TrEMBL record:
Record bears the keyword Signal: yes
Signal peptide start and end residues: 1-25
Taxonomy, superkingdom: Bacteria
Gene3D superfamilies: Lipoprotein localisation LolA/LolB/LppX
Record keywords: Signal
Name the UniProt record assigns to this protein: DUF1329 domain-containing protein
InterPro entries the UniProt entry points to: DUF1329
One Pfam family matching this protein: DUF1329
Length: 460
C-alpha cells in the first residue's frame, strides 16, 4: 500500500499579491541550483517515492530510443516504447476505495457511473525521457529571473519554457501549463466522436495547423512578449459545415491583448472577426459537450477564475500512452458505450500539481469550478474535473500524452471528455484511422498564414 502524500500548503500572501498585480519574487540561487540535481531541469522531483511505485527519473533518452523504428516529421503514428509492459493491476469499482486517495473526484465518479465496465489498468511507472539542453538552460534562467506581472496574466521570463520550474503560486503553475515545451509547428487531420449515452456516434473532422511562437528555434531564449501562438482550424465534417475555417492569434499577456479570431463562412464567402473566441463557447463537432477553453483541459485567458494551488499529490493518470495511438486501433473497438475501452489505456502513479479555479463573482462561464491535475514531469494537464454553477461535479476529462520523438517533448494526444450526468462523452483528437498522425516540427508554417487575407484565400 502506498503512503499518502500530503499536499504542500500554498501561502495565501502570495496569492493576494498576485491579485494586486505585484510581481512575484524569483527563486534564490540556492533553490535554482537544485535544478538538474534533486530536481529535474524543469522542476520535477528526481527521486522516486518511498515504496518505488513512482520510479526515479532516469532521463536516459533524448528523442527516439535506439530500439524504436520511426521516421521523424512525417506524421507516423506513435510507436510503443514499452511493448512488453503488462498491467500490474487494475482499479475497478469493486476495489477503488483502496486507491481513493490517489484518484480524482471525477475518476471516482466514473467508477460509480459505470461500475461494470470502467477500469483503470495501472502499469509500471516510466520516467526515461528528458528535455533538450537548451530548454533546461532557459528553465534555469527563468527560475532566477522570471516574474509574474499584470495580475499574473503575463510574466517577464524567456521563451522556450518552463517559466517557473520551482513555482510558489497558482498562476505560476498555470503559466507553466499554458507554456509547456511543445511542437513549434503542428499539422493534423483529426476526428471528433460525439458519443451519445446509447453508444451512437456523430462524427466531426477538422484540419488543424498550429504555430507555437515561444518554442520556435529562432525564438527560444528571447524575452517573453508579443504573440504566443497561431492556430487555424478547417471543418471537413459534418458536411453542413464543410469549408468553414477559423484562424486565431494568441497573446503572451492577456492583460495587454486578447485572443483574436476570424472565421471564413463558405456560404457567404466572407471573413468576419469573431467578437469573442474562447472561454465557454462550444467546441465545434462536440455537440456542446466541450468548450473551446477545454482543449488541453484549460487554455486562454484565465482571468474569469480565482486560482488556488493545493500543492502536489500522488495520483493515477494516463502516461506513456502509445498503444492507444497505434494505427492498428479501430474506432469501433475504441469508442464503446459510456467511455472508451479501458484495454487501450495506460495509467501510471505519478506526482501531479493540483490547481483549482473558482469562477469569480460577476463573471460568466459554464463551469463554476475546474480542478486540473498537472504532471510534474511534463507540465501538461492530464486530468480535469469540471463543476457546474451549483458546485456539482459535471464533467471528467483526461488526455493521453506521449513523448514525441519529433520534438523531444510530450505531445497531447487523444482525449476524452465525459458528461457524467448524461452518460455521454466526446473522443477528441482522434487520429487512429487517419493516414497520418501529427506532423510535428516540420517547420512548414509561418505567421502570414494566419491573417484574414490568408483565411479568405483558403476558402476559395
Amino acid at each position: 500500500m502506498n503512503k499518502t502524500r500530503v499536499w504542500i500548503p500554498v501561502m495565501t500572501t502570495i496569492a493576494m499579491s498576485i491579485a494586486a498585480g505585484n510581481a512575484i519574487a524569483k527563486v534564490s540561487e540556492a533553490e535554482a541550483a537544485k535544478l538538474g540535481k534533486e530536481l529535474t531541469c524543469v522542476g520535477a522531483e528526481a527521486a522516486g517515492n518511498a515504496d518505488g511505485s513512482i520510479p526515479a527519473f532516469s532521463g536516459k533518452w533524448l528523442g527516439k530510443p535506439p530500439h524504436v523504428e520511426y521516421t521523424l516529421h512525417a506524421g507516423q503514428h506513435p510507436v510503443d516504447v514499452y511493448p512488453e509492459d503488462k498491467p500490474l493491476f487494475e482499479i475497478t469499482a469493486a476495489n477503488m476505495d483502496k486507491y481513493a486517495d490517489k484518484l480524482s473526484e471525477g475518476q471516482k465518479a466514473m467508477f460509480k457511473r459505470f461500475p461494470d465496465t470502467f477500469r483503470m489498468p495501472v502499469y509500471q511507472g516510466r520516467r526515461d525521457f528528458r528535455y533538450p539542453d537548451v530548454i533546461c538552460e532557459v528553465a534555469k534562467k527563468n527560475a532566477l529571473e522570471a516574474e509574474l506581472i499584470d495580475g499574473g496574466l503575463g510574466y517577464t521570463g524567456y521563451k522556450g519554457p518552463v517559466g517557473f520550474p520551482i513555482p510558489k503560486a497558482p498562476l505560476e503553475v498555470l503559466a507553466n501549463m499554458n507554456f509547456p515545451y511543445r511542437a513549434f509547428t503542428e499539422h493534423v487531420v483529426r476526428d471528433t466522436a460525439d458519443v451519445s449515452s446509447n453508444g451512437s456516434i456523430t462524427w466531426g473532422r477538422q484540419v488543424n495547423k498550429n504555430l507555437n511562437v515561444v518554442t520556435s528555434p529562432g525564438e527560444v531564449g528571447k524575452p517573453m512578449e508579443g504573440l504566443m501562438a497561431y492556430s487555424i482550424s478547417g471543418t471537413l465534417l459534418p458536411e453542413r459545415d464543410r469549408g468553414s475555417f477559423t484562424a486565431s492569434q494568441e497573446p503572451v499577456n492577456f492583460a495587454k491583448a486578447k485572443r483574436l479570431a476570424w472565421q471564413y463562412d463558405p456560404g457567404t464567402r466572407r471573413v468576419r472577426q469573431l467578437p469573442t473566441y474562447g472561454f465557454d463557447s462550444p467546441m465545434g463537432g462536440t455537440g456542446g459537450k466541450m468548450t473551446i477553453d477545454q482543449d488541453r483541459l484549460m487554455n486562454g485567458d484565465p482571468s474569469r477564475y480565482e486560482w488556488k494551488l493545493h500543492g502536489k499529490k500522488e495520483m493515477y493518470i494516463p502516461a506513456n500512452a502509445y498503444r492507444i495511438h497505434s494505427k492498428s486501433v479501430k474506432y469501433a473497438d475504441l469508442l464503446t458505450k459510456g467511455h472508451a475501452k479501458p484495454d487501450f489505456m495506460r495509467y501510471e502513479l505519478r506526482r501531479v500539481w493540483v490547481l483549482e479555479g473558482n469562477l469569480k463573482e460577476g463573471y460568466r462561464h459554464a463551469f463554476g469550478k475546474r480542478v486540473l491535475f498537472i504532471d510534474e514531469d511534463t507540465w501538461q494537464a492530464s486530468v480535469g474535473d469540471y463543476y457546474d454553477q451549483r458546485g456539482q461535479l459535471w464533467q471528467h476529462a483526461f488526455i493521453n500524452h506521449f513523448y514525441a520523438f519529433d520534438l523531444n517533448a510530450w505531445q497531447a494526444g487523444t482525449a476524452f471528455y465525459h458528461d457524467l450526468n448524461a452518460g455521454a462523452y466526446v473522443g477528441f483528437n482522434l487520429i487512429q484511422e487517419r493516414d497520418k498522425a501529427w506532423v510535428l516540427n516540420a517547420g512548414d508554417l509561418t505567421p502570414d498564414m494566419y491573417t484574414p487575407a490568408a483565411l479568405r484565400a483558403m476558402g476559395q
